[in-house]
Hints:
Strand content: 25-35%
Number of helices: 8
Bound molecules: nicotinamide-adenine-dinucleotide
CATH architecture of the largest domain: 2-Layer Sandwich
Structural class: alpha/beta
Oligomer: single chain
Number of domains: 2
Strand order of the largest sheet: 14-13-12-11-7-10-9-8-15
Amino acid sequence: MVEKPSIIVVGVGGFGKNHVRVLAELGGLGGVCDIVEERASTYGKLYNVPYYGNVSDIPEGAYDGAIVSTPTSTHKDVAMELALKKVGYLFIEKPFTQTVKEAIELINFLKKKNVKTMVGFIERFNPAIRMVKKYIEEEALGEIIMASATRVRRWPERVTDSGVLLDTAIHDVDLMRYLFSEDPIKVYAKTGKSMHRIHEDYATIILTFSSGKMAIINANWLTPYKIRRLEVIGSEGVVEADLVTQQVTLSSKNDRITPFSEWSEPLRHELKYFLNCIVNNENPIPGEEDAVRALKIIEASLKSSEVGNSVEIYT
Ligand SMILES: NC(=O)c1ccc[n+]([C@@H]2O[C@H](COP(=O)([O-])OP(=O)(O)OC[C@H]3O[C@@H](n4cnc5c(N)ncnc54)[C@H](O)[C@@H]3O)[C@@H](O)[C@H]2O)c1
């Protein structure tokens, strides 16, 4: 049994440096790795942990877990190499891989190596989402009818291996599955490209579920300010959540309440959970199956936009 897991963060760029900071706060940071050696050495020295310029330099058996926060196009190769280094737990940043095919190849490989895998769908650990989930489970909204999510902000061309669907909307795709405890069966999507050269930078998805529920997801990299909002509508009430401020409002026919809850960092909850899974030898959730399901929905959305019709999503 591992009492105090030692984790290496691979990829200490824009988001990886947050993993480094939070893991250090939680006492789980054991090393850093980045192909830009200066980045690796900066964080290694700052937190007084070993640093490496390449995954191949990481000693075998040195780490209980690893965070893969390199660009999405590299996740599969980096994760496989970490498994060969006998890292038992991998936390692979969303969207896991670029395609369903890659995800399945990676999962089959990791299973053979007995590696337990978590995917970085961080919003499940957002306190606002936890409150929304609680209201749904307590049936405070009555029967759930539909949900809508908006995730927009202005981004210059930054991510070149993914469009707004794979990079951004996937957070809300996962949230809809999580909140409804159900997989969608069909998607209709429209996407477009305005400022970005390679991939779509705005998209709207409509998901339908066999229970009759529906979900609408809007995402773009064009709106000059940041909005991350979710609304769930039920037969007896509505819950609205601001995923940035974490403010949640529950409205029913006669009442409207905004319970106070102190803001706390979703990444801290997420990584604390990952560390606990290692200590307790548990399979983390969301895991590889959640990643594949979300990727299938994204691929079906891209297809829908291409053909101009709704597309069935096979499980
Ligand atoms: N959960 C979230 O909310 C969230 C937010 C942002 C990004 N992400 C995800 O995190 C991942 C990284 O995104 P980012 O914005 O930090 O990218 P980034 O380009 O800013 O950083 C990636 C880092 O990985 C390094 N790198 C590249 N290939 C490497 C390799 N083979 N081995 C070691 N290091 C390597 C790069 O030098 C760079 O420092 C992406 O998968 C992205 O989808 C998740």
